[in-house]
């Protein structure tokens, strides 16, 4: 927002901080429990950040909707309605993510198992911090707005009747109006342009009967292509994909497929017993055994 009182910069920063706390808590708990830390786990913070920021936007959007319906002075009722609207969405998304990653712990690959354990636990902590820490931050930010305080300095902004300069109003209120004696928090809050766009343009466009028919046809084509793609999946892994494009391993596997793919895997015979190799009869027996295997 342009208003320096209604600005939500600190809310956004605390939402990112909430995701960071979830990563630290998850990593600390898993390391304390002795779960191996592998290189793939280093990608987990990016997943947690994406989900944490998504939950943050859901909470803020629900708060804004609630603040338009109710008296802004009752923080408890505002926060209660915010949780009633946002908690269900946040809970469902968290449950599906946690379930997906904890199912991944059944794999036979130890590195994937560690990655799923770290990430799934981080999602649990992200949910806890969003429902507790971030909700408290929203209430504190609301208290700052009600006090008509600047988002950066937290100083009370121009409550007197004395007119201030245009530069002062631009820095402290976000606008260049000389009539700034009225509290910013008392002014009616305008609706966000994205809400207007989706309600007045996007919604009516997609509820048109021809557009609905086109969407159904496109989804049918997408579904058919997805089913066909699932039938083409083959189990296995190409070892080339595990190395970088400029690695010496790539030419090796190309040559191996080109010249030796017709011979199949190499078979090795191991003699585990104690053998008298000095005995010519024993050596002939081993040679005959090898020829029979060939």
From TrEMBL:
CC terms in the record's Gene Ontology section:
membrane
Its keywords, alphabetically, are: Glycoprotein, Membrane, Transmembrane, Transmembrane helix
Q: Which Pfam families match?
A: Patched
As for membrane topology, the entry says: Multi-pass membrane protein
Q: Which residues cross the membrane?
A: 9-38, 44-63, 83-109, 115-140
Annotated SSD domain residues = 1-140
* Keyword Transmembrane helix appears in the UniProt entry: yes
The entry sums up its family as follows: Belongs to the patched family.
The protein, known as = PTHD3 protein
What species does this protein belong to?
Trogon melanurus
């Amino acid at each position: 927002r342009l208003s320096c009182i209604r600005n939500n910069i600190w809310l956004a920063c605390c939402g990112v901080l909430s995701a960071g706390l979830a990563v630290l808590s998850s990593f600390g708990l898993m390391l304390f429990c002795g779960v191996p830390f592998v290189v793939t786990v280093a990608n987990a913070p990016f997943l947690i950040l994406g989900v944490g920021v998504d939950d943050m936007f859901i909470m803020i959007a629900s708060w804004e909707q609630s603040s338009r319906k109710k008296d802004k002075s009752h923080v408890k009722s505002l926060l209660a309605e915010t949780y009633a609207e946002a908690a269900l969405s946040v809970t469902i998304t968290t449950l599906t993510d946690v379930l997906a990653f904890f199912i991944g712990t059944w794999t036979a690959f130890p590195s994937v198992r560690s990655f799923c354990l770290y990430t799934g636990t981080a999602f649990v902590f992200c949910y806890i911090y969003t429902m507790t820490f971030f909700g408290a931050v929203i209430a504190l930010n609301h208290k700052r707005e009600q006090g008509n305080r600047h988002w950066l300095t937290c100083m009370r902004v121009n409550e007197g009747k004395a007119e201030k300069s245009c530069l002062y109003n631009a820095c402290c209120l976000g606008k260049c109006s000389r009539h700034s004696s009225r509290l910013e928090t008392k002014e009616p809050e305008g609706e966000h342009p994205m809400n207007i766009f989706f309600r007045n343009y996007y919604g009516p466009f997609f509820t048109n009967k021809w557009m609905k028919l086109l969407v159904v046809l496109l989804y049918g084509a997408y579904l058919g292509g997805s089913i066909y793609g699932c039938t083409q999946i083959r189990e296995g892994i190409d070892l080339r994909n595990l190395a970088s494009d400029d690695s010496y391993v790539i030419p090796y596997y190309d040559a191996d497929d080109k010249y030796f793919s017709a011979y199949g895997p190499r078979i090795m015979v191991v003699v585990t017993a104690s053998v008298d190799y000095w005995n010519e009869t024993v050596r002939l027996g081993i040679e005959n055994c090898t020829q029979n295997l060939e």
